[in-house]
Amino acid sequence: MLVRHLSLVDFRNYATAEVDLEPGPNLFVGSNGQGKTNLVESLGYLSSLGSHRVSVDHAMIRAGQNAAIVRARLEHEARELLVEVQINRSSANRAQVNRSVIKPRELPRYFSSVLFAPEDLALIRGEPSGRRRFLDQLLVARTPRLAGVQSDYERVLKQRNTLLKSARAQGLRGANLSTLDIWDERLVGLGSELIAERVALVGRLHPLVVDAYRSIAGADHRPALGNRLSVLAAHPDADEQADDGFAVPEGTTKESLSREKIAELFREGLTRVRRQELDRGLTLIGPHRDDLVFELNGLPAKGYASHGESWSYALSLKLSAAALLRIDSPTGDPVVILDDVFAELDEARRKRLAIAVADYEQVLITAAVYDDVPESLTPHTVRISAGTIVDPSVPFPEPGEEDAT
């Protein structure tokens, strides 16, 4: 998969932007705050329908405007596609492929990318919601139909929570909650599929993470990852360090924890926590309460890993996602995006990372300092200044000059 041309209208600080891209590495360079990350953020949005920087879409619309447009001309196996999304401030977003209208949630089936940015340190150190989002976006990139399953699950979860809140307010119990049993079955059906897919995905990722971590860090710190499933918790508020069977070993697969077994555990869990759910008006178990567990040298990475180890682990996760998409995605290699990564790495890690991404069809890199990026990744360099693509005929500034402007 290649991006041949990117076009933006009223996206972030760009009134308009037209950027030609080449196969292999493409470097966007410019001082901080000029708009480098905005370019790659737009492509990340096309493949994931989300931003790695903000949680609301309207933040990506240029100030004073009602909509932003991201349009990309893609190439895969000599076939070209024109994909477009219009992000609206006060109405539903719209999407097109080759000028034909599609549902925005269908965009990831046409374009695949994996983006790594400093914000991804939160995968290791942050809240479970970020780790769930990482898994779910990768699931959809590999199997686009799961976007519908995720959407249906969220809808059922919202309806069930509304019923629980109503029951709490009215003091209903037992036989008066037969409607809740119906929503339980829908929740179990959809939720069990998502849990089973996540468990299988983590099983596929584990050996790839081990290899990627060694290639980046230059050492084997025995990285391990596994699922933490709320349907296995003895108590809905079990602490993440509690040894209560909450964690599923990294080698667990669909075969060893089948969807049918998960559904059975899910039903049992809902029965077990029914009273707490009615008291709190909230669904306490399910994929929306699960987590992804990381270890280094047999210890939880969260709380024990150093800054450098956390950085290497987060980068390894994204490289492993790219490797898995390369194997599974019908669109071939994902576009690998490295946003402001090299400034955080020492020279040895920079060289190892350059080697790790060298054979991907297309790699997009942003950097504030040109010399931070290994020479092998700089053949096609685009300079950015104040939301403008600088004419390539303009001489490159001497070190320190651009920062002074």
UniProtKB/TrEMBL annotation:
Its GO CC terms are: cytoplasm
Q: A Gene Ontology molecular-function term?
A: ATP binding
Against InterPro entries, the record matches this protein to:
DNA-binding_RecF, DNA-binding_RecF_CS, P-loop_NTPase, RecF/RecN/SMC_N, RecF_2
Q: Where in the cell is it found?
A: Cytoplasm
Q: Which residues are recorded as binding ATP?
A: 30-37
Domain of life, per UniProt, equals Bacteria
Q: Which UniProt keywords apply?
A: ATP-binding, Cytoplasm, DNA damage, DNA repair, DNA replication, DNA-binding, Nucleotide-binding, SOS response
Q: List, in alphabetical order, the GO biological process terms annotated in this UniProt record.
A: DNA replication; DNA synthesis involved in DNA repair; double-strand break repair; SOS response
Q: What is its main location?
A: cytoplasm
In what residue span(s) does the RecF/RecN/SMC N-terminal domain sit?
Answer: 3-367
The UniProt similarity line reads: Belongs to the RecF family.
- The protein's role, per its UniProt record: The RecF protein is involved in DNA metabolism; it is required for DNA replication and normal SOS inducibility. RecF binds preferentially to single-stranded, linear DNA. It also seems to bind ATP.
Q: What is this protein called?
A: DNA replication and repair protein RecF
Query: What organism does the UniProt record list as the source?
Result: Agreia pratensis
